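Q: Start with the shorter request: fold the first protein.
A: Done. Sequence, then structure:
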Amino acid sequence: MEPAIRRAFEQAVNGVRSQVQMNLLADLLRAGDVDAVLTALGFDAERFSPMTEAVRDAFLAGSDAGMKELPTLSMRQQVRGSYNPANPTPVLRFGFDLRNQGVENWLSSNSSRLIRGVVEDQRQLVRELLTRGMVAGRNPRQTALELVGRIGETGRRTGGVVGLTAQQAQYVANVRAQLASGDPAQMVGYFDRKRRDRRLDGIVKRAIAAGKPVSQADIDKIAGRYSDRLLALRGENIARTESLTAMNAGREESYRQQIEAGRLAPENVTCGWSATADRRTRHSHHLMNGQKQQFGVPFQTPSGALLRFPGDTSLGAPAEETIGCRCTKTYKVDMAAEVWRGQQVR
């Protein structure tokens, strides 16, 4: 599910770059109207609708996976030392409703959260870009080019910071400052950046050897390539986080609907937190590994954050507990108790 979400994000950003009107953008930046800049760029729900559709597909895939993992009765299921009738009890005949209000609520709130987060990132980015431009004495058109990039040999704009987080845009600004400093002690710090294009390292090395700053044209090329790679990284992070969260939410919904319909009793569903056991896993999530709760009771991190499933933000879990989380939630149904309950219902 990740590639589709990543492509949708990248296409949205490329759409912003391709349709920009530079003179209008420069005028709006000169006026310092951040919201008008975002409107002119086209950062709205419609722009990101393909991304939210891809997330929806991940949610539905998760719900399908959840339905397939729900237990089914064999023709002769042993229950507490005796056997139930040949026909499965109606209590354990599962179904999933795509039009259920729980489905609609999650898709709507998640879509709003995702788009709101991207737009707020851009609002902060533009605000800080304006501040840096004024301090450096750049004219509005230079700031606009730094925002949306320059037209390259392919005829497309690349190298802008639009689409990045404000922090990533600051990284790009720092690269520009390092390369323009002419100070070897600062310039050598560029080589510590993992996302740099190493094919351009020679330009920086020659400038350091000559004791001169990198030319402006080369700074634009190097910083632009670095920015493009950070954008790809952001697309990867969004895709990984949103696909896993949506899959987990879909699985959760498949169980929730069975409980809502009375096909399962929540006290008969035990949920567990399963952490991915590698170095990339958060320490707090390592500590949660094996934590068990009855269905409907959220998991709690060592910091006190509550999550219904990995990646869940509905109970206020912060980004440091959700972004890029690769943990999973396990579900175990007490079949004996369910069959016994079904026999009592009949």
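Q: Next, the second protein, separately.
A: Sequence, then structure:
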Amino acid sequence: MTPDKSKPKNIDEYIAAFPKATQELLELMRKTIGEAAPEAEETISYQIPTFKLKGNLVHFAGYERHIGFYPGSGSTIAFREELSGYKSGKGSVQFPIGKPIPLELVTKIVKFRIQENLDKAAQRASK
């Protein structure tokens, strides 16, 4: 959630509400996700930055001590070993501020999520 608790209208507004160092990390996440999913639409959902492609793809958010990444439970299970060095929950991962974000891993997870969403959309279409 943004530090001033206002509801952002877009990702630019969301990121602008954070301190400079956090803004840089959020922009890095945005760029990495956008490059991995160039067809995805940027939006705000649940009051945090969201990328959509055939449904919600991934979300991310800034906090005082970490950047939250929300790829869904299938991703955190599939990448459990690679995410083992980070605090995580069902469908969420915390990348501590002050440590490098594993951008290659973020890219792999986003591509995994794209395939999940495309598979689900194809299944719905075939019914």
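Q: Describe the second briefly.
A: The chain has a mean pLDDT of 93. The CA atoms of residues 67 and 122 lie 32 Å apart.
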